[in-house]
Amino acid sequence: MKKAVLTWVMLAVCTLAFGMDRKTGNPRSVYLEKGSVSLSLSGGYNHVDAGSLTGGSNYSLMGLIGNLSGKADIYDVNFSGAWFFANNFSVVGRVGYSGLDIHLDSSSVLGNLEFNNKHINRPMLTLAAGVRGYLPLFNSKIVALFGEVRLSGGFGSTKSYSVTERGKEGTFSDVNEIALGLYPGISVFLSDHVALELSLPLLEGGYSWDKEYEGQIPSARAAHAFGNFKPNLLKLNLGIVFNF
Questions:
Q1: Is the dihedral of CA 8, 14, 18, 20 positive or negative?
Q2: Residue 107 pLDDT > 90, yes or no?
């Protein structure tokens, strides 16, 4: 899948580089000029449905998880706006919404640990601000590498419950997270005002904390400090950008 995306990007560069009046090869050209405004929209959706076709044993995943039956939905949508305070440099604001919705009827891990009748719902709102710089490749106004330093905060909740004769029984958690990271990528103009961007986290660090409730009473808490200095392919992001 990743190879297909990269191949698609390179084909777009080759096929659309000709016929656009963006002064390709001008050594004094810039990728995006001071005063420009960019708007970006990206998102994703995944649906998983596993079970039995014959009424016998359910799905087995890589021999590690057996008797797997249930559904899961993973989705996110992100909107960003940028203003260029100098040639090739902008300030960026972002807002995103993501969700995880799992309904697990049955599963067993390594044939011993079993999970049945488990439901998890986790919506999350993320706000972020950062500074981005572009480096045009070969002095081109069509293709450029970029790097963005971003500070983000996330706010959400997690519901984990089972359905019993008395209704839904489980726990509720408030989820909070703050992170600082470096996000490199590549930008390719498809027309004079529309570009395609591919980016992923390279350096991320932050802190998250949860407060768990049973009923309306706080019952537990957890905290997690994290730091990663490696490309995170699970967070590969593909977006469409409109420039004005």
A1: positive
A2: no
Model pTM score: 0.74
What is the residue-wise DSSP string for 150-186?
Answer: EEEEEEEEEEEEEEETTEEEEEEEEEEEEEEEEEEEE
Q: Residue 138 — φ and ψ, nearest 5°?
A: 55, 35
Task: Render pLDDT for 129-173 as a digit per residue (tens, 0 to 9).
Answer: 999 999 888 888 889 999 999 999 999 998 888 877 777 777 888
Are 221 and 208 in contact, with CB atoms under 8 Å apart? no
CA distances from 214 to 160, 171, 173 (A): 11, 5, 9
Cα dist. 231→15, 182, 228 in Å?
29, 10, 9
Over residues 213-242, the pLDDT tens digits come to: 876 677 788 888 988 887 777 677 888 999
**With contact defined as beta carbons under 8 Å apart, do 56 and 67 qualify?**
no
Q: What DSSP string describes 34-103? A: TT-EEEEEEEEEEEEEE--SSSSS-EEETTTEEEEEEEEEEEEEEEEEEEEEETTEEEEEEEEEEEEEEE
Which amino acid is located at 162 in the chain?
Answer: S
Question: Which of 1-10, 45-54, 58-67, 223-232 shows the lowest per-residue confidence on average (mean pLDDT)?
Answer: 1-10
Map residue 232 onto helix, strand or coil: coil
